[in-house]
Design brief:
By secondary structure, the chain is α+β, with helices and mostly antiparallel strands. The protein has one domain (about 15-370): Creatine Kinase, Chain A, domain 2 (2-Layer Sandwich), CATH 3.30.590.20. It has 15 helices and 13 strands. The protein has helices at about 35-40, 65-85, 110-120, 120-125, 140-150, 155-160, 180, 195-210, 245-265, 275-290, 305-325, 325-330, 330-340, 340-350, 355-370; strands at about 15-20, 45-50, 55-60, 90, 130-135, 165, 170, 190, 220, 225, 230-240, 295, 300-305. Strands 1, 2, 3, 4, 5, 10 and 11 form a seven-stranded antiparallel beta sheet that branches. The protein has a two-stranded antiparallel ribbon with strand order 6-7. A two-stranded parallel sheet has the order 8-9. Strand 12 (about 295) and strand 13 (about 300-305) form a beta hairpin. The longest helix is centred in the last third of the chain and has 23 residues, at about 245-265. The chain is globular. The mean pLDDT is about 95.
């Protein structure tokens, strides 16, 4: 089984946003995906997910971040208006604070029911919501080199997006509970370190022939090469609550992938931490987000994660300027200054003791961020 990588000569960008469908009265999740899809005139970009309380919104292949913003603004505006008409609200964070996973309705598609049948309890608990970002890459070999190096930066992306401190009516003590839930699937979490494109093909051949997966769609790594799209896909991020934060994270990811690609083209060594360092740093990001200290070398030296993010932003500034997304990327500083979503959620909950008020604030963040850009 030879896998062809559909080359993307330019660093195009595509975004997938997994949104929570909310009952306006109770602020609980509601199984409204099929109703939304039946009433939407945009089946290409409004799609179902594993559970019926999730709706996925996609962009087309975009040439730059400005196009991503334009598409997401238009489609979120249309989706919010449709949900107003149908009696739903939308939210964009990694988990819902008090909804029950065992009450969620699985979407009636063979792929999803096969997943639940095979994985059972881990799959049934996937009441989680993320942001996925694709960036175009020129070749499979280049994609694998970038893919390996990106593992070093997964903790940074997770920390900035952390928005899931609650699950199943509990404060978990984590900044991102979503990633710990996702990691329970057999093909999710941190990826393997791969030698080259041939080894990725061998991995796929083994698992497809063993009937562990059907395609790359069942490889739910935090970052993965996507041969069909010709992209690197970053999947580690929790859902981000506002349009501005989604755009800033997308710009940051695009600039990072392009910088690594340029280093590769120049024959430079791409930074790759030892796997045990990446694993520990990811745990720290899921626990403490941007307040974590991360391991920087094999001697175990530490550095504040927030400080490392600022250094990366400085490093990426020339690339972001060329891509025309510097202002958007620098929105990452605002996330650092204001704190990621999980902090705001915790503050509201500790002040009110009411998860419903937490959800009201999350819903308001998304709606107002979209309306201000119309």
């Amino acid at each position: 089984m030879k896998m062809h990588f559909n080359s993307s000569p330019n660093p195009t960008v595509g975004v997938e946003v997994e949104l929570q469908i909310i009952d306006p009265e109770t602020k609980n999740l509601v199984s409204g995906a099929q109703n939304i899809i039946d009433n939407s005139d945009d089946a290409e970009h409004v799609k179902p997910e594993l559970i019926q309380s999730t709706i996925e919104l996609n962009t087309d292949v975009c040439s730059n971040i400005a196009a991503v913003r334009m598409e997401l603004t238009e489609r979120l505006t249309s989706l919010i208006k449709l949900c107003d008409k149908l009696g739903y609200e939308l939210a964009s964070v990694g988990t819902h604070p008090f909804a029950k996973w065992d009450e969620q309705v699985v979407t009636p598609k063979e792929r999803y029911h096969m997943l639940v049948d095979r994985c059972q309890w881990p799959a049934r608990r996937l009441m989680i919501f993320g942001l996925h970002v694709h960036v175009g890459v020129a070749s499979g070999e280049k994609a694998i080199a970038i893919f390996n190096s990106l593992s070093t930066y997964l903790p940074h992306l997770l920390a900035l997006s952390a928005s899931s401190p609650f699950f199943d009516d509990n404060e978990t003590g984590l900044a991102s509970t979503r990633v710990k839930i996702f990691e329970t699937l057999p093909t999710a979490g941190l990826p393997y370190r791969l030698l080259n494109w041939a080894e990725f093909q061998r991995f796929m051949i083994t698992l497809v022939n063993a009937k562990a997966i059907q395609s790359v769609r069942e490889v739910w790594w935090d970052v993965r090469p996507h041969p069909g799209f010709g992209t690197i896909e970053l999947r580690v991020c929790d859902g981000l609550p506002s349009l501005d934060e989604i755009i800033s994270m997308t710009a940051f990811i695009q600039a990072l992938v392009v910088w690594l690609g340029e280093q590769y083209d120049e024959g430079m060594y791409l930074p790759v931490h030892r796997h045990w360092i990446v694993r520990e740093n990811k745990w720290r990001a899921s626990r403490w987000s941007v307040d974590a200290e991360i391991i920087t070398d094999e001697d175990g030296n530490l550095k504040p994660l927030s400080e490392d993010i600022l250094d990366i932003l400085e490093m990426l500034t020339p690339v972001a300027k060329r891509l025309g997304c510097l202002d958007e990327m620098m929105g990452i500083k605002k996330i650092l200054d204001d704190g990621p979503s999980y902090k705001r959620q915790l503050q509201i909950y500790r002040e009110t003791g009411d998860f419903k008020i937490v959800m009201e604030s999350i819903i308001k963040e998304l709606r107002e961020s979209v309306i201000t850009h119309v």
